[in-house]
Design a protein that fits this description.
This protein is an alpha+beta fold and 71 residues long. It is built from one helix and four strands, in the order E-E-E-H-E. The protein is globular, with a radius of gyration of 14 Å.
Length: 71
C-alpha cells in the first residue's frame, strides 16, 4: 500500500499471493489512483515486493503476474 499522508488517502496498492510450498509468488490486483499515475509508483511497488520476496532473505524462487486488458 502507498499512502499520501498529506492528502490522507491510499493512492496505490498491490496484492501478492504466495505459494509457500512451491516457492512461487503471484503479483495481482495492482491499482494506482488516476491522479498519481505516471509517477513510477507501480514500478516502485513491483521492485519493492520483488526485492523482499526474491532477495537474499526472500522465500520465493520466482514471481509472475497475469494481466487483463479491456477493449
Amino acid at each position: 500500500v502507498v499512502r499520501d499522508d498529506d492528502a490522507k488517502k491510499i493512492v496505490a496498492s498491490l496484492f501478492c499471493e504466495v505459494d509457500v510450498l512451491h516457492k512461487i509468488g503471484r503479483l495481482q490486483a495492482m491499482v494506482v489512483h488516476p491522479e498519481y499515475r505516471r509517477l513510477s509508483i507501480a514500478t516502485q511497488l513491483v521492485e519493492e515486493i520483488s526485492s523482499q520476496l526474491l532477495g537474499p532473505n526472500g522465500e520465493m524462487n520466482s514471481l509472475y503476474t497475469t494481466t487483463r486488458t479491456l477493449s
